[in-house]
């Protein structure tokens, strides 16, 4: 990309064309230009004919270089949308996937019938996408959401994202540790719902993309020979924390529906349901604690 100083008289409108030629996708080019300009989509439309400043041009060049080196777009931009939230995203956390948004819907549908106030746990929260979405979308002050992660680095990201959602963040609590070890002991037997997008990829799975292997945190991806080590821990210990009739919902790999449903059944859950994602693939399992 050529120098983007005022002397070049390059408008943002022209810059989108230039960047599209470099990255190959106009949508991606537009996102990068919006981000470099410091504007959101609506405001960016109003500055299309303004000149690109030298500082914005340098930022844009750096992002294009990182993208060219294979770094995921979400990390390059440092932010990504998830449902109604604009989240801080970097190499400390997994990139939120569109299918995970449905896990929030599954939990919300169950929580509609729960007497308020309620206690929710988001195990392995990463960026906070699931737990913060629940806080943001449920009625204000109706829930306390405990968000845990074994990675203190991930919790720094989740706390930053909590600060970005405003008043609903008053219901956010954070805990560092492996699964239930991160929760206050006094929560045992009081939790209305547990949600989690745990690691569920089998070690050495050949379907994992090179970009995922190179850039995303492996501790949040892989879980033993069949990918279900962490799922077993979460399901088998959930009864210690849930109230009778409490709800557990997990994301999983698209081939794991039967195996995860069996883990739920063996742990004594009822009303076990396998839910599909937008592509029609098995993606979540939920159940009720007896």
TrEMBL record:
It catalyses: L-glutaminyl-[peptide chain release factor] + S-adenosyl-L-methionine = N(5)-methyl-L-glutaminyl-[peptide chain release factor] + S-adenosyl-L-homocysteine + H(+). NCBIfam families: hemK_fam (TIGR00536), RF_mod_PrmC (TIGR03534). SUPFAM superfamilies: S-adenosyl-L-methionine-dependent methyltransferases. This is peptide chain release factor N(5)-glutamine methyltransferase. GO terms for biological process: methylation. Its EC number is 2.1.1.297. Pfam families: MTS, PrmC_N. Keywords: Methyltransferase, S-adenosyl-L-methionine, Transferase. Residues 110-205 form the Methyltransferase small domain. Residues 25-78 form the Release factor glutamine methyltransferase N-terminal domain. GO terms for molecular function: nucleic acid binding; peptide chain release factor N(5)-glutamine methyltransferase activity. InterPro entries: DNA_methylase_N6_adenine_CS, HemK-like, N5-glutamine_MTase, PrmC_N, RF_methyltr_PrmC, SAM-dependent_MTases_sf, Small_mtfrase_dom.
């Amino acid at each position: 990309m050529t120098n983007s100083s005022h002397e070049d008289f390059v408008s943002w409108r022209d810059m989108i064309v230039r960047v599209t030629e470099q990255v190959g996708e106009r949508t991606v080019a537009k996102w990068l230009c919006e981000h470099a300009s410091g504007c959101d989509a609506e405001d960016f439309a109003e500055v299309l004919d303004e000149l690109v400043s030298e500082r914005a041009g340098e930022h844009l060049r750096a992002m294009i270089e990182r993208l060219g080196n294979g770094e995921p777009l979400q990390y390059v931009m440092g932010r990504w949308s998830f449902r109604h939230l604009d989240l801080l995203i970097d190499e400390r956390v997994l990139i939120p996937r569109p299918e995970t948004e449905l896990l929030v819907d599954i939990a919300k549908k169950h929580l509609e019938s729960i007497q308020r106030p309620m206690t929710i746990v988001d195990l392995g929260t990463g960026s906070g996408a699931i737990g913060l979405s629940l806080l943001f979308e449920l009625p204000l002050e109706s829930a306390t959401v405990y968000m845990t992660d074994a990675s203190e680095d991930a919790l720094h990201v989740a706390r930053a994202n909590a600060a970005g959602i405003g008043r609903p963040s008053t219901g956010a609590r954070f805990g560092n540790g492996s699964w239930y070890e991160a929760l206050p002991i006094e929560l045992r037997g009081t939790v209305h719902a547990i949600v989690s997008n745990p690691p569920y990829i089998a070690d050495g799975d050949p379907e994992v993309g090179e970009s995922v292997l190179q850039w995303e945190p492996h501790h949040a991806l892989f879980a033993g020979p069949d990918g279900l080590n962490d799922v077993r821990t979460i399901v088998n210990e959930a009864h210690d924390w849930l109230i009778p009739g409490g709800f557990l919902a997990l994301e999983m790999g698209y081939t794991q529906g039967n195996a995860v449903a069996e883990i739920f059944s063996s742990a004594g859950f009822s009303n076990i349901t396998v839910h599909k994602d937008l592509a029609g693939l098995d993606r979540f399992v939920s159940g009720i604690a007896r």
